[in-house]
Amino acid sequence: MKSKTDVRERDARVTQLFEQLVEIEQRLIPTGLHVFGNALELEEKTDLLRMVASFDRPEHGVRALPTLVAEGLGIDSYDVVLQEPATSETKELIDGITSEAIRRFCEGDADSAADWLHSRLNVDRQQSLPVFLLLQRIADQLDSNHEMDALMRALRGEYIEPGPGADIVQNPLVLPTGRNTHAVNPYSVPSAAAFARAKQTADALLRRYFDEHGRYPRALALVLWGLDNIKTQGEGVAQALWLLGVRPLRDALNRATEIEVISLEELQRPRIDVVMTVSGIFRDLFAPTMGLLDKAVRRVATLDEASDVNYVRQNVTQKIEVDGCGFDDAVTRVFSNAPGNYGTNVNFMVMDSQWENAAALGDLFVTRKCFAYTRDSGGRTIEGREAPRLMGDALSRVEATYQNIDSFEVGITDVDHYFEYLGGVSKAVETRSKSRPAIYLSDSLSPQTKIRSLEETIRLETRAKTLNPKWYEGMLKHGFRGVAEIENHVANTFGWSATADAVDPWIYTDIAETFLLDSKMFERLRELNPHSVRSLAKRLLEANGRGFWNPDEEILERLRDIMLAFQDHIQVTA
Ligand code: BEZ
Ligand code: MG
């Protein structure tokens, strides 16, 4: 007989498992590549509209549809429901009614959807109609795609209308596509909305670290990208400021050029030291913001506060004492490439298998990204002084690394840039601090801010995309290119082994079984793209050779056979 505790533990485990399955099932994924000039299919359009409708949009005078549904059900706060587990019946009910309303909108129109919600839940039409009218405008713009026409006009040297660059869900004003994407005014970053969201996300990040370690991290390394900060009006920048315990202040021209210190009473936690590794695109687009971040660190380092509530001051003081260096060196925290340079090259080194040991990947990251953007003791701006020792020192105190994810379209195994940056900096920290940092990512796109460890994110991405038939069948519709996308995903997943040893071995086993050991699938891939099939086998063998995966010898034999057979095939047909 099972004891009561056994049964309770089992039930808790089953519930946890169920929640994980629901999380994978509900994850929004692109089910195919965008074909230039083509409009979205109905199903994708419905999913996208549901996402758009799940956020408050004060700028359009529109409230989130799930909130209106919750109110119709007599629930006061949808935010409280959002914190409940994915299995919550209330949440399911709200999601179900919201989806049904969107379906009715897609099949009918704004009026019929608002009427249905009114008759079903007595939701005020005055409240719901603006949501559906916004969806109507977006749906129309999604249907009328001007990409090809705009390209032809651009090739003729004609004028292309400008439009903002963002994620459609973050800012539907990016539609219609086929316009000349423009960025933001860097002085407006971070916006008030970005700061409000950043507080939630950064607090969730600190809570997660605290739950796992029993204390706050003394220093964090953040990755800041340009396009992401355009899309979110500076959410990553705002997260860095909030972690330091400051907020931006606007000058007479409404430019965010000054810093206001947030009191420790308001903060209710220590000020966290942050090392910012900034992409070349960010550096080019956000020069004033680089200055703002540098100013913020300097200001926090000089606050008259005890070191156990101000880790910036603690670390800066310690560095000056131990190294005998000056304040300007000790306080340097904003690093990027040399002026005119971009990227870490860690991705190229991994893709070409050109690395002997993982430490070399972290070293390469520092070599490329160790250029300090700061000021000298006379207050003069320094734009990119090579400072590998300063960066190495700052990284040696880091206990957690982090990157904000703000798009459902591009995840950490879709492109090689996430592992080159977040993986690269994590490896650099590991070798310099002599301990692997905790590595986190946010999911700030969903209404419910979520922080996941790198390992959790890789599992989720693998289940939701790489191993999900809906995802890979969507890719395979694109033939040769689709197989190359599958291969890319596997290579990018491998990038997380190389830089952070963060990939569970079952992931490689399942990839091998799904794409190469299943004879039907193998034949399909071979027909479409033998080059990628060979690369896939080679990458899996590399995962084994470098000690990230240790499958049965039979599997390895088969992979070797594939590689050899395809070498001949490609040579003969080339
Ligand atoms: C950026 O937006 O800063 C960025 C984009 C792609 C790769 C790396 C950085
Ligand atoms: Mg690129």
Question: What's the end-to-end separation, in Å?
Answer: 66 Å
* Portion in beta strands: 5-15%
Radius of gyration (Å):
25 Å
Q: Indicate the overall shape.
A: globular
Low-confidence stretches: none
Overview of this structure, please?
With 574 residues, this protein is an alpha/beta fold. It is 58% helix and 10% strand. The chain is built from 27 helices and twelve strands. It has helices at 4-26, 42-53, 65-72, 78-83, 89-107, 110-121, 125-143, 147-155, 192-213, 226-231, 235-244, 264-267, 280-285, 287-301, 311-323, 327-330, 346-351, 359-369, 388-396, 417-433, 454-466, 469-476, 480-500, 505-517, 519-528, 530-545, 553-573; strands spanning 162-164, 180-182, 219-224, 246-250, 256-261, 273-278, 334-336, 371-375, 381-386, 400-403, 438-442, 451-453. The strands form three sheets. It has an eight-stranded mixed sheet with strand order 9-8-7-6-3-10-11-12, sandwiched between helices. Strand 10 (400-403), helix 20 (417-433) and strand 11 form a beta-alpha-beta unit. Helix 5 runs antiparallel to helix 6 and helix 20 runs parallel beside helix 23 (480-500). The protein is globular. The model has no long low-confidence stretch (mean pLDDT 92). The structure holds benzoic acid and magnesium ion. The site of benzoic acid has 7 residues, from helix 10 and helix 13.
